[in-house]
Amino acid sequence: MPFPDTARAEAAALAGDLPGLLMEARRLAAAAPGAHGRRRAGQGEAFWQYRDHRAEEGARAVDWRRSARGDRLYVRERELDAAQSALFWIDPAPGFDWASDGAYPRKFRRALVVSLALATLFSRGGERIGALGGPPRLGARAVERFALDLISARNEEPPQAPARARVLLASDFYAPVETWRGHLARLAGVGVSGALLMIADPAEEDFPYDGRTLFHEVGGRRELLLGRAGGARAEFSARLAAHRRAMREMARGLGFVLLTHRTDHPAAPIFSALADALSGRAR
Question: Could you tell me which of 251, 238, 239 has the C-alpha nearest to residue 282?
């Protein structure tokens, strides 16, 4: 279904800023030189390495051409090819494309830069990258094509992913836990795993409001008037912490890692943590 004209305008604006986004992402990815470490032995097609033959593997496993060069028996290992796609989804909700202050990036933009940096890193390691629900990209122009796919893909909820893929879902994850349980269970049902990137604006964590305050729903019509906003700070913080604990536990039970990030913090630490999580090093 076509997305609204406002979403089209936002996508066009981001596409116009694509060179700047890619430059920012490449600087971030440069902090992690080399491949990201997901290569490992398995039932793939690409040669990885030779190793010593083990007696329990039998004669059929021996690479006789390599073994004939010396006195030892060798096995030709191939790189695991079962989970070599890194797929991304960014929440298109108006509330996620928001910042409380011009000094901070919008949550959507920060998610986009981090995703592009991860895609740059993974593409450098020879992996396919893609927007969830779109075509995987591979090759010299993969990141640029992926960036346009990701900017244009305004799916309201994460589409289904191919079996055993690794995914990154970026959102503020304010929808009910049970809503997200349904999305993640659908993905986990086909062997998908990965990470959730929960991004918050500092105002959403600190609740720096006092006195009479009128709150407007971003992209909606609902309003909430609090006569003494500061009096709601403690309850707001407690509810947010409880929601995050429930989200983290639910995600972990379905094979996903949940990581949090504030837009007033530098992107490098969360980028590194996500690279580890999507590489299977932070399980």
Answer: 251
